[in-house]
Amino acid sequence: MRNFTYYNPTTILFGKGSIAEMNTLLPMDLKIMILAGGGSIKSNGVYNQTRAALSGYSTVEFWGIPPNPEYEICMKAVAKVKEEKVDFLLAVGGGSVLDAAKFIAAAARYEGVDPWDMMGDRSSIKPALPIGSILTLPATGSEANGNAVISRKQFSQKLALSSPSLWPQFAVLDPETTFSLPDRQTINGIVDAFVHVAEQYLTHDVNTPLQDRQAEGILLTLIEEAPKVLSEPGNYDARANIMWSATNALNTLIGCGVVQDWATHMIGHELTVIHGLDHARTLAIVLPSLLRFQKEHKLGKLAQYGRRVWGLNGPDDLVADAAVNKTEEFFRETGIKTKFSEYGIDAESCLIAGERITTRMGPIGERGNLTKEAIETILKNSQ
Fold this sequence. Notes:
The chain is an alpha/beta fold. 46% of the residues lie in helices and 11% in strands.
């Protein structure tokens, strides 16, 4: 196992009615900005619960964070933070609202000219405004890590930022807030969490048996619980298990000391910019093709995955192939499509992703072997 440092300062309030407990973590002298998306939290009762929990606090609100949080909208929130002298940001919604909150928290205290310069440059992020969250869509794991992804239309870019100062101080996870989610969002969340685990687990062995078992446990839980939440949207236990799995998929624990990939996400981000596809749907298109392309380099882990998660038997080579097929079948069984053609998209129109990524970062993947040409091949094989 490699050396690592584990850092996780987020307090988790989990379970039915936990929004009401949030004020135990917030000093009364704070001025709080509530950040939200398009208004679904008003129809499902989360907004009223939030306002009740914040009774007596000084608050302002900022609405309109889109599913792929945009720099231009975030900067409007930054201006309001400064104008209102806000002390604390409370993200109420899914991972997009939380990612926006992280960027806003950092940008509000950024000392340079353009906060976009923070993207990919951890050293430029100074101590940010403190953040809390009420999660309504389990998917990104953003409630328990210091990462965020932001889009900027002007540059046609979707980039990540990361810093220890961007970890939320607390996250409220009440599974009942997810009961009213449309199937599309529920499915996207399950697939996103699944691929988060795959990016950290399906690489190569560095003697991390505990982390492997933890990753496999999350994958098995997602596989077992997905059919339940899709057939019974009000199944509290299934919703709770999905929610906790998504948090643990990216709270950095299973990634401690392991080799990580993240090529699927990097390619997926470009596809969202190019074609506007949901983030999770880009992952479902790319991951199976990428795993097949990287089979030689990932063979040991793919075979282990096939045996432990899917119960497969046989030679490593055949088990690895079958495991990738099972993964793609799982995505499709949840109702998510896995081919460009099923979205009416020609893979040729996506090949620019390889050039965009490698120009900015060079070859990607845990072995640094995914060149522009390799990415193009992966995308063509996803047609």
